[in-house]
Amino acid sequence: MTTELRVLRPAEWASWFGALELAFGGVPETGAERALWRDLTEFERSLGVWDGEECVGTAGAFSFRLSVPGGALVPTAGVTMVSVAATYRRRGVLTSMMRRQLDDVRTWGEPLAVLTASEPEIYGRFGYGLAAQQLTARIDTSRVRIAPPAAPEAADGSQEVRLRRVKPDDPAVREACEAVYAAQVAGRPGMLARRPGWERLPVLDGGRPKDGASPLQCVLAERHGEVVGFTLFRNKPEWDMAGPKGTIELGDLYARDAAAYVSLWRFLFSIDLTSTVLADNRPPDDPFQYVVSDVRRCALRLRDSLYLRPVEVGAALEARTYRAPVDVVLGVEDAFCPWNEGNWRLSGDAKGASCERTADRPDLTLGVRELAAAYLGGTSLAALARAGRVREVRTGALAEASTAFGSDVAPWLPHGF
Ligand SMILES: CC(=O)SCCNC(=O)CCNC(=O)[C@H](O)C(C)(C)COP(=O)(O)OP(=O)(O)OC[C@H]1O[C@@H](n2cnc3c(N)ncnc32)[C@H](O)[C@@H]1OP(=O)(O)O
């Protein structure tokens, strides 16, 4: 096979993106979607594999900043648009792109890479571990009520929240919604600080058929004229012999405080002629679970979401803080990025951390995938040890590290990329 792997040139984008669409089944994106993805493509960070004129492999790496425990926003490669032509599969094209990409990410000085996987089995071999899950819910709103024990108060003591329907793509609305989103980022590991342009993603309509659902609708929660929350959703009307049974398909819902948050959920539950709220990507610890009258009829389910890879173990572990004081030597195995292999002394607490190479014996040994899984606090090292994936060498080290790596707020990635 005579193929060439090279950095994407702007003139090649249409063939490159076309190859990606074909690898994902051949349904072309709409014009608006294509335009957005072209605008967002970072050419110098994208790779193509070419056989003559034919593009047979694609991979990109957005320059994100990822929120980690403690609130730091860490430069992170957002691995995306990975594909190999169906006629070139299982010949190592993906492996060659992952090799080049991780070497590049290291050169760019970004300690982390993240992705969402079309299939969970693909990326473990390259050192990616499951770092965050997403909660899905199908809520029977004909039976379930929002029933907070008491009306929550806002920080200023007032309770009044006014809901206002607005046009989702109005620039002033987008700006206000982005500000609400941005205020959440540091407080939840796994969220991405969006670069300019990404605010178009949640409202991208694209002209694609909605399977009977309405165009995107937006409702703001305001207090004293200030936007304190918003929701984006579609309404899919449906009727049968018994009457109306429409579905609210929830896109986004963010709020700055509990009063606004509860008001928005209450609104979604109360829309006439609907009896279901469908939410396919909520944080695993989304508080709506704690204000519903019947959690069983919410049909909650977890699924894999964000995969993470520590590209530079030392820098990655220093970038976050730790819930409790920790001083352990981690023996890290990393066959794909051997510069991470070896023993690292991690000393840290809630204020900060240092992580340096050491000649000391390890207290815990683990693969880089396990470190990845624990990194954002979404998977406990103790649970991984019970699965045989982390080994304790010094008694007590596992409990110490497992407590320290935990996060009070579940990591969550709000949207794909
Ligand atoms: C972040 C994202 O963009 S996720 C999107 C990923 N892309 C897709 O799913 C689009 C459709 N699929 C494809 O384009 C391709 O099948 C890819 C990209 C998943 C794999 O590309 P290939 O060039 O065939 O992979 P490559 O030959 O390098 O395989 C490397 C190893 O991964 C394994 N592998 C590759 N794809 C898969 C898969 N889908 N499931 C399980 N194992 C896989 C191979 O068997 C091989 O294993 P080995 O090292 O034990 O021999």
Automatic annotation (TrEMBL):
Q: Which residues form the N-acetyltransferase domain?
A: 3-180
Q: Where are the catalytic residues?
A: 123 (proton donor), 417 (proton acceptor)
Keyword annotations = Acyltransferase, Transferase
One MF term in the entry's GO annotations: aminoglycoside N-acetyltransferase activity
Does the record bear Transport in its keywords? no
Record Pfam families: Acetyltransf_17 (PF17668), Acetyltransf_9 (PF13527), SCP2_2 (PF13530)
**Gene Ontology biological process terms from the UniProt entry:** aminoglycoside antibiotic catabolic process
Q: What is this protein called?
A: GNAT family N-acetyltransferase
> Whose protein is this, by species?
Streptomyces corynorhini
